[in-house]
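Fig. S4 source data, part A: sequence.
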Amino acid sequence: MKDFRGKTAFITGGASGIGFSMARALGRAGMNVVVADINVSAAGEAVERLAKEQIKAVPVACDVCEREGVRRAALDALAAFGKVHVVCNNAGVAVGGPLGNVRERDWDWILDVNLKGVVYGVETFYPLIKSHGEGGHFVNTASMAGMVSPPGLEPYCATKFAVVAMSEGWAVQLAPLNIGVSVLCPGFVRTRIHESGRARQEKYGGEGDVDPGVGATREESVQNVLNGIDPDVVGERVLEAVEANDLYIFTHPMMRAYVEARFQGIRAGFDAADKSRALKAVKEWAVVTPSTLREPK
């Protein structure tokens, strides 16, 4: 996507953190911005801040756990600006903890926000983008936790791995419609992700403290986040990637080593398969065609 001026971006979790920084970066590039957030008061404050930078924006209430809520927010966006071109499915929460200690309602919460919220965003907006024929782009926020899985962070990683996988598939499906897809995989960013419980809905237990499960202690978890990079850097990085139509958006190049270590383990598994006595009994292998999977490069 090369031309941003006069087009519209819809951003969930847009009132703070990475979401707000994407709103700033895309707004500075000339886009109208819909700040969608579960906290509509915070969204209104974010819009006021954007207005001081001459960015045209509107606040919209949006609980990404509810498909109908996302649809209503989409209608509000269309009422405000007529069309939507870029959708940033960014709203997310963090839950973790030792095996057996994560509550069922917290599993439900993180799956509904981090995974289903992205599904609802893509399924709601892609027909709208397709209908105006001007092309567009999805940015789905995952994490480096969608590439590697530290112990104690399994609920979060499960959702972020899913966002990566879905984005890879959707990128192939949507490319013929001139709709790009990027998956954002940041490392630690200075946000309030460690305070996810501040916006937890009543059906998941209401507002309160939640174990983010990052690091040996909660204090270490908080420090990892507070020592992260400036969210505005991430916003600018997203703008670069959308313009370049990059599938993967990374923010911490030094974390490449962790991903490569995981790949080494995967390669070792394939090496073991090559030497497997059991597999030597297979006489004919099914061929995976490019229509079902990307060809390796």
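Fig. S4 source data, part B ends here. The longest strand covers residues 179-185.
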